[in-house]
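pinned: reference chain
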Amino acid sequence: MTSNELTVAYPGREGAHSAAACDRLFPAARLVAAASFSEVVAAVAEGRCTYGVLPIESSLAGPVNETHDLLFDSPLSIVAEAILAINHCLVGTREIPLEQVREIHSHPVALDQCRSLLASLPWATAISSATTGDAAAAVAELGDPAVVAIASARAARMHRLVVLAEDVGDHPEAFTRFAALAPYTRLDRRHGAWRTAFSFVTDHRPAALHRAIEPLARRGIDMVQLVSRPIPRTPWRYRFDAVLGGHPLDEQVRDALRDMREQTAYLRVFGSYRADLEDEGATTVAA
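pinned: its structure tokens
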């Protein structure tokens, strides 16, 4: 596709980490900034954009619950993933002593990844933003030196902000997994390792989860991720979002999913995509 044919929605503004993920997933695409995660999903589901890109997992904070819940309630599937190293910076309108910081804006996941910084500034109020890019933009618009953001150096440059401190994350190596979403599920077979994402609900009986995932263990299939999420319309009931290693048309994976359907009240595959591994060597991970 040419850049005129391919549009990709992402949450926030230019400078957000999701925009960088779009560049890696779809380097020739025209990027479309959306106001929220739900607007990204709506843009793809309604056909206004070809793909959407959302963060789905942090190596430090774990799953991004909003993305998981939006996927469950939408007709979209994961068709590619990209893993990006995340370097958090503290940015503001001008250099000031950190003792003068009054507010720190950022996305909740970024705030959670910078607990040590927040603990060192107990007098400052942490304020959630839709994305780190939105946090940087809000700080620039306010123009108050005492109001700062946790964002990327890229966002700081775009909004003409000063980097007050680099590498403010709790750990030197932090990564975020981004998911590319589309209104279809990929079933093509291309080079490299593959992942299959699916969601299931167990019956409400003892050992139901064990019975549900036993077909995977019996066939030696690796469960890459398992996330428990509440079902809002059914209090105290939960669904499980999972990712396993393998293609849904692989014989072992296909048979395991068939057996899991017999042991669960509900099961739906919502993703088939090539794993983003360092040794694959592809120019774009969405191939």
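why pinned: The first helix runs from residue 17 to 25. Confidence is low (pLDDT under 50) at residues 279-283.
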